Every structure is written in C-alpha cells, then in structure tokens.
Task: structure prediction
Amino acid sequence: MKYNRFQELDMMRGFAACWVVGVHFWYFNFLPPFFGYSHFFEYAKVVGPASTIAKFFPLPFKSLGNIVFDLLNIFFLLGYQGVHIFFILSGFGLAYSRILKPDESWINFMRKKFIRIYPTYWILLAVSLIIPRLRADLFYGYFDWWSFWRSWIILDKAIPFSWFMFPLIQFYLGFFLIFKCLQKFSLKQFLLISFLIKVTYTFLVLILGFNLFKPILGDMIYPGYLAISRLFEFCLGMAMAKVYASNPTLLINYLTKPVTIALAIIFEILGIMGSFTFSNEIKFFGVILPVGLSFYDAFIGFGIFVIIFNLCRLLIKISDLTTRFLTCISNISYELYLTQFIGLIVIPKYFTVVVRGEPSLLTASRAILLYVLIIEICIVNAFLLQQLTNSIARRVRLAMGFFTSGIK
Result:
C-alpha cells in the first residue's frame, strides 16, 4: 500500500506542541506573578482545578491593552487542548502504519515503535533522578519521590509536564488489542464503545477523588495519567486512519464539510463548559458528581481536531513560511514536549516576566516576546535530545545486530 503524506497532520502536530508550551508558560510563569503570587502553587490553590468565566477574562474591557491581554489569556489557557490533538494523532499514526504493513510481524512492528520513544523515556527518567538532588527549584520547588517511583511502572510523571508520555506508552503496550477491536467492529461501534469505557472509568475515578480519596489522588487530572481516560481520542485517530487508508479524499471531505465544522464548534463549546465549576458540582444525596470532567476532553478532542485541521489547510494556502515552520516542529514535537520545562525555567531566571503597574498592552507584548524566546529554547533542546536519542538507539541496534549475528 502506498504511503500518502498527510501534511495537515504534520502541521497540527507542530501547532499542538507550540500551543502546549504556551499554556505552561502562561499558567506557570506569567499569571501567578501578574496576580501578585510568588509561587505557582499559591495561585493554583486560589483558582482551583476547574474553569470559570473570570479565569478566561481576568481584566475588564476598559482599554485596548486589557482586550489584547484577555485574548492572549484565552488562547494560552486553551493550550491544554494541544494534548488532545497529540492523542488523536498518535492513534492515527500507529493505526495507519499498521494498516500499511499488515503482513509485518507484531514483534517487529512494535519494536520499531518502541525504539522511537523508549530511549527518550529512560533518558528523562535518569534526568529526573539526578536533577532534584542538585536543584530542587528546577521543579518549581516541588518534587515527589512517590511520583518518581510510580513512573518506573508507567503510572505517573517523573519530571514537570511529562505526563503525556505515560498514557502514550500504555497505548503502545495495548495497541495490539485495540487494533484487533478496530478490525472486528464497525467504526461507529468502535468509537461508541471507546467513548463509553472512557467516560465510565473517568467518572468513577473522579467520584472517588471528589468525595473520598482526594489527598491520595492528588488532583483532578489524575485519570489523565492512565491511557483508558484518553481512550476515545486515541481510538478516534485510529478510526480516521482506517478511513484515510481506504479513501483519503473521503476523510478530508468529511473533515472540511461545513456541517462537520459547525458540529466541531458545538462540541468544543460543550467540552469547555464541561470543564467549568458549575458542571462538576452536581450533588446527588450528598455525593458530588463531576459530570463535566468525565466527558469534556472527549468532546474537546473531536472539536479541536476538526477546527485546527481546517485552520492548517487554510495556512497551507496563504503562508508557506508558517507551513514550513509547523512541519519542521512536528519532526521534534515529541522531544519538544518533554524538554519544554527547561525553557520554562530559564526564562524567569534571566528575564523580567511581569513589571508591576505597567500598562497591560506592554505586559501583553512582553508575554509574546518571552513566549517566542521559550519556543526557540525548546526547539534547541528538542533537537539536541532527538540527536542523543537517535545516537543511542542506533548504537543499541548495532549492538543487538552484532550479538544476534554472533549467536548464529
């Protein structure tokens, strides 16, 4: 089967990586000092885990600077949605690769995929063991050894912002079974089953977190560390890969239909509303039911994917430079995601993030410039990590080849 390069998906991967870096910069480095907090964790205790309207519009619309600041705030705070794009693209990439090579043994197929991500995993795990001993402030003054040991069994994050890799690895481990389900069921059945499993699991875990074991679970995004909580998004990508492999035009036409775009916008709005406090404070016989947080990411996953897909198609037509940049970023997106904490730590050390009392327009301009600097730092770090990972993987393959040839 011939491989068709899906340029829009490459651009989406690059856009998602930059967007995720943006939300972490804004939420961890920018908003806390802007609102007068000396530390992110102080700010997080005040704003809480769920969203509110005031969270997106912190400044009154009294000046151009306030409007620009609020628009940037909306854009950056929604950057967490880039992770949803990653999960869908991961499902698409794995399924499409397997569909292209149906006769390849599963052992060889998964070995190639794990070589792509596992060396990076162990490098970062080693870093997470060394750095806290030297500079605890690199973890924003917080490091949890319990999380570190859990990371050895792929259940928790070892360093800041690295949680995405754990459900991803879990999906790799269970991909054989999920792919068999993709072949066995119709696409509608496949997506419906994955949605029901995801929502049921997340709802039950969050009920425990809200009502019984909150100190043990830690925070309300805990279910995100396990692949089952992202099952629908991953399966949505696999379903699209199956359609694309049989008829690329059919999938593209469906994603670009006005009715699909309208439906995506509706799902996006419903998903965002599901993250609001009022959607998660429903009480039944004294038990808090976090209904919104149980389904919001599944709705957002579909909505944001369609919206960004069409945005990337538009960018291809009007801006070759942007297309080239995002495509280039897509090649290091995995490493950029995992090493972004370095740029987020360096910037506050050497640059003034917030100046008290300055006009909001100047503050917004400063935020944009610092964000560009962070992206540049992240690109360099991601490229270096990719080179290191490729070098290690290449040496391991050569060593394994020499060892197996010696046995023969």
Notes: The first strand starts at residue 282 and ends at 284. DSSP finds 17 helices and two strands in the chain.
